[in-house]
Amino acid sequence: MTLKELAARSASFNVRLHNLQGVSIVDWGRMKIPEEDRPALLRQMHRDSVVWLYGYIAALADRKLVDKGDAERMHCELLYLHEKHSSIVNY
User: Fold this and answer.
1) 29 lies in a domain?
2) pLDDT at 41
3) Which pLDDT score, from 0 to 100, does residue 68 have?
4) Is residue 52 a contact partner of residue 7, using CB atoms and an 8 Å limit?
């Protein structure tokens, strides 16, 4: 199983994966978040997504709903995405 396959099965997983990938677009005007607060909010959303996704995969593996090997591969992919997109959210 891959992150993409898991995202196709779970809407909540999909939302957080998109947040981690920077795909989700926040409507800043509608949320009325001051521009100076936006980088901190993006960093927090990024961190929250990483933690949530990692825990979700670990829980699935503990319940034997995904193979341990698949879980390890997905954890590695999450860490890669975290590193890749950290530079974007830490401007």
Assistant:
1) no
2) 87
3) 96
4) no
Q: Are 50 and 20 in contact (CB under 8 A)?
A: yes
Domain that holds residue 50: 3-24+40-89
Residues 6+ apart with CB under 8 A from 88: 22
What is the tally of structural domains in the chain? Answer: 1
Q: Which of 90, 2, 6 is nearest to 15 (CA)?
A: 6
pLDDT tens figures, 28-64: 788 888 889 988 888 888 899 999 999 999 999 999 9
Q: Which of 71, 51, 73, 52 is nearest to 61 (CA)?
A: 71
State the pLDDT at residue 87. 65
Residue 64 CA neighbour count, 13 Å, CB half: 0
| Domain-located, residue 35 | no
In a domain, 34, yes or no: no
